[in-house]
Amino acid sequence: MMRRLFPHPYLTVTLVVLWLLLVNRLALGSVVMALILGTAIPLITARWWPGTPPVARPLALISYIGLVIWDVIIANLQVARIVLFMPTARIKSAWITVPLDLTSPEAITLLAGTITMTPGTLTADIASDGKSLLIHSLHAPDPDAIRDDIKVRYEARLKRIFAE
């Protein structure tokens, strides 16, 4: 019965928390609306989700989120420095292809979203076979280092979280 009402419990919890953070108020109406959205959205979209994402280590996902938040803060400072103090002639933008070892669509989507959320980088495309991402970097004096950093810092962690 609970699985039928909450087909994706992690999504339900995420939606409830995000709604409460968005409204920035812990009132009865806000909590009720969060619970309605957290229940209705997964129920409505369940037919497009073939199965539950294979999260093998949910606690590792929490540390991954902390890492991403830290990286977003640092990247904001780096992008501000580049935009404000670096002459445009010295900025070396680049397109970078990142080959993927991940196979789960949820893990690939999480990696692409992480790259896009981090200021200075953007996931522009995924290969039709799902084996690589096309990334744009605002400043990439060494594109190979950025590719390797993405694979070690994010993809390796996601492989452990999703048991790939």
Automatic annotation (TrEMBL):
Alphabetized GO MF terms: monoatomic cation transmembrane transporter activity
This chain belongs to the protein called Na+/H+ antiporter subunit E
The entry assigns this protein to a family as follows:
Belongs to the CPA3 antiporters (TC 2.A.63) subunit E family.
Q: Where in the cell is it found?
A: Cell membrane
Pfam families for the chain: MNHE
Q: Which organism is it from?
A: Fuscibacter oryzae
**Taxonomic lineage from the root:** Bacteria, Pseudomonadati, Pseudomonadota, Alphaproteobacteria, Rhodobacterales
Q: Which GO terms describe its cellular component?
A: plasma membrane
Highest taxon of source: Bacteria
Q: What is its main location?
A: membrane
- Alphabetical list of NCBIfam families matching this protein: PRK08965.1-2
Swiss-Prot/TrEMBL keywords: Cell membrane, Membrane, Transmembrane, Transmembrane helix
Residues passing through the membrane, by range: 58-84
Provide the topology term for how it sits in the membrane. Answer: Multi-pass membrane protein
